[in-house]
Amino acid sequence: MSPANVLLPATFGQAALRGIRCTCPRCGEARLFRKWLKPLETCPRCGVDWSPQRADDFPAYIAILVTGHLLAPLVIALATDFELGPAAMFSIIVPLAVAMMLGMLQPAKGAVIAAQWWFGLHGFRRERLPEAPGSNPDRP
Ligand SMILES: [Zn+2]
């Protein structure tokens, strides 16, 4: 597929969903990562250069935030309804939290890279679908 034949995402949500699926946010067809958290240098389908991405620790913050909010009601329920002791609580919550965070890191990094690409951060070129004539009421 040549870069001209790429079906760009129409919205940020569509680009983020492509990133969450660990596919290229620009074309949505090629994989985004060459290793678990290492993105490809360039997309093999559309040719976008992924080297400007700077996700840093943000995917980990997202994974911690989501895991904490999902597990908090479970911790409260286990402590109040089942009256589990600290050892039983630890043996349930810690493996579950680790599994959830590890499972969430790659999709979170895909979404962060998609956001950086969509908003043209760190040297990415902002690309949008061409507007259909007459679709914008503000312009004649
Ligand atoms: Zn691509």
Automatic annotation (TrEMBL):
Keywords (alphabetical) are: Membrane, Transmembrane, Transmembrane helix
Give the residue spans that cross the bilayer: 60-80, 86-105
The cross-references to InterPro entries, in alphabetical order and at most eight, read: DUF983
**Keyword Membrane belongs to the record:** yes
Keyword Membrane: yes or no? yes
> Any idea what this protein is called?
DUF983 domain-containing protein
- Taxonomic path: Bacteria, Pseudomonadati, Pseudomonadota, Alphaproteobacteria, Sphingomonadales
